Amino acid sequence: MDDNGFLPRQALQTLLDVLRRQGYRTIGPVVQDSVVQYRDIDATDQLPSGWTDDQAPGRYRLTHVDSPRCFAWATGAQALKPHLFHAREVLWSARRDDTGRLAFSEQEPDVRRLAVIGARACDLAALNLQDRHFLHTINDPYYAAKRQGLFVVAVHCAYPADTCFCASTGDGPRAKQGFDLALSELDDGFIVEIGSERGRAIAAQLPLLATTGEQVREATDAITEAANRQFRQLPSTHLRDTLFSRLQHPRWDDVAARCLACGNCTSVCPTCFCHAEHDDVELGGTASRHLREWDSCFSEGHGHLHGFNVRPNTHHRYRQWMTHKLGSWHDQYGRSGCVGCGRCITWCPVGIDITEEANAICAGDLPQEGSP
After folding, report:
1. Is the pLDDT confidence value at 371 over 90?
2. Could you tell me the pTM of the whole model?
3. Which residue of 38, 52, 87, 352 shows the fewest CB atoms closer than 10 Å?
4. What is the rounded distance in angstroms from the CA atom of residue 265 to the CA atom of residue 339?
């Protein structure tokens, strides 16, 4: 759908009002704890107007500038994943009555409708990958219920961080699909694109004006410039064969010596879906809840299998993460699991750069000594 119109900046509140009248809980970017985070909003003055971000390996800083723009930043610490695949979620519970009999009850899926304002192209590419896993591979009812009620207002990115590389993965900075409405921000307002019939119904209630050729050119040039400013890139969008031919490359030891195995990269990654399940038992022993929680392939317990650990050290855990993310995802989902958002680079405490490591491992001839 290529319909578009121009929404004056002062009318952005109308979009929130219309969504809320349609029964949506509205969340959008706000500045909280010195980070752009998605939180509940009901007014546009809660948006991060005038805020921009400075990101580098192991570094994230916000700066306030004299600008009316609300989306002049690249990415926050999280994308859409926490709102569809909760970090901690009850699946079912059990309770013992006075006679000693156990009664089990399934947790009902969350069917509340949610509208997200400000999703980036990389976030939507990640959402598509999460859909492939949770909807088409494992048919998860909890994810499906939340996904069905999701309304996405994307914002084309014009301010990439130094850690961004979505242009090299083909996932940005323009949002191509997966949105209901998409915005291109200008100083005086927004070009609004319609991406779905639900989006069309909401757009019909907005005071949209006709766009001008100059407005379209300005928005297009900003997106093009955002792609041109990205200097990081992966060596290829398909690294499966190359990575698996270099499982003994000495670079794995080099990166393992720097990696803390803290799991920050997997926590902020918008496509990682590893989780663990366990029972949370009340102190009295009469009730328990069966929980699903985010896990990481960097944790020791994640590799524990039948009395031994298949990934006993950081060398094996980092190699598992990268070869799965950039390699075997092609077998599972038809593409790489990396969307180029750069979050893993920014939020790594020691500044490990996945593009640097991938280029080092994949470059040149395979070392002869120790090669498989």
Report:
1. no
2. 0.93
3. 87
4. 13
Residue 26's domain comprises 4-85+109-228
Nearest to 45 by CA among 15, 13, 20, 67: 13
Per-residue pLDDT tens over the stretch 173-219:
999 999 999 999 999 999 999 999 999 999 999 999 999 999 999 99
Residues 60 and 346: beta-carbon distance below 8 Å: yes
Q: To which residue do tokens 């752009």 refer?
A: 36
147 with 169, same domain: the answer is yes
Establish if 290 belongs to a structural domain: no
- Residue in this structure with the two tokens 């524990």, named with its chain if needed: 304
Count how many domains the chain has: 2
**Average model confidence (pLDDT) across the chain:** 94
